[in-house]
């Protein structure tokens, strides 16, 4: 689950991490009121969307005039912001963060992730803040310093000091960084985060450190024990992916026109690969799980046909945990219930495969059976209009 910047900064403040003063506004009038409450003579208007690259896309504006602030907020709220990391049609801007402007002397980068290689939380920092950290990693990786945290010992002060020296901070700033890093580590562990980023972590002109931006990803698997679960903003998520989560379906929208419904993540990836190899383009990744039911198959079909780009559907099921005849029954029920009007190719293998194929053949529906995965891919690509 992704958090908005204003939500992430609330958590930062709870854990003693310094942030700018600011408040969220859902209308232009609220934005002006927020600026007046903050005081000062300069403000930032920041679109709240789950996508990076807001500044270059016009989603972050600096202003010294309340009328201009009102105009900017009015244009952003209710718009679709298209960034290099957003969906092609952009992300909806439902609110903006009004933040007090800061006098910046230098911009740093600070982040933490779960490093799968070391199986530890790892901090990353760089003097090259305020820009794409991916670009820094690709072109000048020596500018990034890391600290891997032992899960038994926890974050150690010497690691914080080492990072402070690497960032060329003075003694006072290094002491402040120790507090920030310990706060981030507690936040990361206690809130079950998978990623946290501060870009930039600014050195202000008075020498202090301040988080001017905030990005947090929360592990979905731990939301049941987190009171921030209701902070999820469904408007920022793909509608099909959101519906899939409600039925415990693993779904990712892609750009092609051949929909896939498969049980098992590995088999799903292999299915997409062979579709591509056969000249087609997969429209989605969809893993219905090993113990799928007719109801979940029906819901999967509903999600698939809601995508107007889909020209054909490939169902690739291995009947191991669940029998092929039960899967066939679910497919037949789903096709009848949903009213699928695009070609459906089904490849079944496993327990009771012959019974399942027989049920599909006698269903009277426009369902094409395939003998193997290569045969299924060739048939579904042809049904979708041929190879690209």
Characterization of the model:
With 388 residues, the chain is α+β, with helices and mostly antiparallel strands. Helix content is 35%, strand content 25%. The protein has twelve helices and 18 strands. The protein has helices spanning 5-14, 28-38, 66-76, 133-139, 157-166, 171-190, 239-246, 265-277, 294-305, 324-338, 353-361, 373-383, and strands at residues 22-25, 43-47, 60-63, 80-81, 91-92, 96-100, 104-115, 120-126, 144-149, 193-204, 209-211, 215-218, 250-253, 258-262, 284-287, 312-319, 344-350, 367-370. The strands form five sheets. Strands 7, 8, 9, 10, 11 and 12 form a six-stranded antiparallel beta sheet that branches. Strands 1-6-2-3 form a four-stranded antiparallel beta sheet, with helices on one face. The chain has a four-stranded parallel beta sheet with strand order 14-16-17-18, with helices on both faces. The longest helix is centred in the middle third of the chain and has 20 residues, at 171-190. The mean pLDDT is 90.
Keywords:
388 residues; alpha+beta; six-stranded antiparallel β-sheet; four-stranded antiparallel β-sheet; 12 helices; 35% helix; 25% strand; elongated
Residues in helix, %: 25-40%
First and last CA, distance: 36 Å
The count of helical stretches stands at: 12
Total beta strands = 18
Helices and strands, in order, run as HEHEEHEEEEEHEHHEEEHEEHEHEHEHEH
Q: Let me know the average pLDDT.
A: 90
Q: How many strands, what sense, and barrel or not for the largest sheet?
A: 6 strands, antiparallel
Judged by helices, strands and strand pairing, the structural class is alpha+beta
Indicate the low-confidence ranges by residue numbers: none
- Beta strand %: 25-35%
Q: Using only CA atoms, what is the Rg?
A: 25 Å
The backbone outline, from C-alpha atoms, is elongated
């Amino acid at each position: 689950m992704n958090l908005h910047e204003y939500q992430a900064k609330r958590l930062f403040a709870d854990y003693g991490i310094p942030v700018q003063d600011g408040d969220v506004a859902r209308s232009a009038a609220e934005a002006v009121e927020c600026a007046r409450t903050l005081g000062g003579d300069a403000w930032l208007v920041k679109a709240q969307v789950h996508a990076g690259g807001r500044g270059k896309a016009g989603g972050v504006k600096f202003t010294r005039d309340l009328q201009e602030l009102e105009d900017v907020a009015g244009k952003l709220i209710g718009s679709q912001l298209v960034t290099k990391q957003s969906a092609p049609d952009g992300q909806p801007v439902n609110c903006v963060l009004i933040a007090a402007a800061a006098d910046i002397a230098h911009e740093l980068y600070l982040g933490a992730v779960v490093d799968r290689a070391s199986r530890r939380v790892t901090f990353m920092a760089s003097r090259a803040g305020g820009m794409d950290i991916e670009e820094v990693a690709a072109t000048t990786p020596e500018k990034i310093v890391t600290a891997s945290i032992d899960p038994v010992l926890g974050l150690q002060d010497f690691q914080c000091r080492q990072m402070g020296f690497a960032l060329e901070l003075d003694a006072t700033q290094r002491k402040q960084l120790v507090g920030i890093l310990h706060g981030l580590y507690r936040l990361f562990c206690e809130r079950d985060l998978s990623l946290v980023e501060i870009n930039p972590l600014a050195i202000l002109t008075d020498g202090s450190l301040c988080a001017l931006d905030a990005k947090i990803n929360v592990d979905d698997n731990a939301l049941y024990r987190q009171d921030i679960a209701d902070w999820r903003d469904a408007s920022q998520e793909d509608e099909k992916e959101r519906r899939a989560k409600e039925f415990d379906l693993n779904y990712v929208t892609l750009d092609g026109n051949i929909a896939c419904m498969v049980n098992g993540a590995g088999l799903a990836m292999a299915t997409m690969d062979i579709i591509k190899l056969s000249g087609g383009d997969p429209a989605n990744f969809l893993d219905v799980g090993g113990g799928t039911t007719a109801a979940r198959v029906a819901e999967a079909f509903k999600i698939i046909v809601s995508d107007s780009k889909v020209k054909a559907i490939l169902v690739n099921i291995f009947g191991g945990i669940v029998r092929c005849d039960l899967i066939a029954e679910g497919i037949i029920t789903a096709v009848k219930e949903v009213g699928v009007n695009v070609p459906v190719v089904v490849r079944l293998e496993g327990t009771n495969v012959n019974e399942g194929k027989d049920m599909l053949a006698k269903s009277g529906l426009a369902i094409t059976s395939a003998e193997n995965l290569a045969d299924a891919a060739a048939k579904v690509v042809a049904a979708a209009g041929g190879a690209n």
